[in-house]
Design brief:
Blueprint lengths: L1 H15 L1 E4 L5 H15 L1 H6 L3 H18 L2 E5 L5 E9 L13 H11 L15 E9 L6 H17 L4 E6 L2 H14 L5 E7 L5 E8 L1 H7 L5 H4 L5
Parallel strand pairs: 4-5
Antiparallel strand pairs: 1-2, 2-3, 3-4, 5-7, 6-7
């Protein structure tokens, strides 16, 4: 039943947008969207007073890393408008920020997120085992609740097809937690598990949320295809 529902859900999203793996040509537009949204909406960056200009160089470098490994997905309208993005890292070989791009306030963000440690059972032993969903944003001018669901479905499909077994994210935004629970309601089953949470001295709370792709791979047979990413069959 769930598999049939997912096929219907993919078809519904395909009518409204195209979701595909991130590519090198996406860097400028995707980095700008992420920098603007994180400066405006993310509680931790707002608390530290980070501007989009301060965030942009580091996010651009991160997008370049993601594009090289196709670690992430973007959503566009059929007219070509960027609607949203989710980026990911291979946790065994994560993105290493260039030192010259780390301002004092960006280092503070890294320190807060770095205090959230995964349980030992979740620490990867090889590549393409565990991915870290790092950044996610949707354009408020065009996006609605369906864009994040389409992106989540797309990145699960894509990274599952690449061989990843599990994923996790560090969530600092309560609205994002609510959206993740909404995605679970779409699938009629629990997906996300709280692994740990950490509160900083400034009062910001970071929650590590994990999920397994075993069920996704065995039941849904996810793969990178025209069904998943909205391209016409040839």
């Amino acid at each position: 039943m769930t598999r049939i529902f997912l096929a219907i859900l993919r078809a519904f999203f395909r009518l409204r947008m195209t979701v595909r793996p991130i590519a090198p040509g996406d860097t400028e537009a995707v980095a700008r969207l992420l920098a603007e949204q994180f400066a405006y909406r993310e509680p931790l960056t707002r608390q530290l007073g980070l501007s989009s200009q301060e965030l942009l160089p580091l996010i651009s470098a991160h997008i370049d890393y993601c594009a090289q490994g196709k670690l992430g997905v973007v959503a566009h309208s059929h007219g070509g408008t960027l609607l949203g993005v989710i980026t990911a890292e291979d946790d065994f070989r994560p993105f290493v920020p260039p030192e010259d791009l780390l301002t004092p306030r960006l280092r503070m963000v890294g320190d807060v997120l770095g205090r959230v440690s995964l349980p030992n059972a979740w620490i990867p032993q090889s590549e393409r085992e565990l991915f870290y969903c790092d950044l996610a944003a949707t354009d408020p001018q065009y996006a609605d609740k369906h864009v994040l669901a389409a992106l989540t479905l797309g990145i699960f499909d894509h990274l599952s097809a690449m061989g990843f077994k599990r994923g996790y994210a560090k969530v600092t935004n309560e609205r994002m937690m609510a959206r993740l629970r909404g995605f679970e309601r779409l699938l009629w089953r629990p997906i996300f598990t709280e692994l740990c949470r950490q509160r900083s001295a400034a009062g910001s709370e970071v929650i590590a949320v994990g999920w397994s792709l075993d069920f996704w791979q065995s039941r849904f047979k996810a793969r990178v295809s025209s069904i998943n990413f909205g391209e016409k069959k040839r």
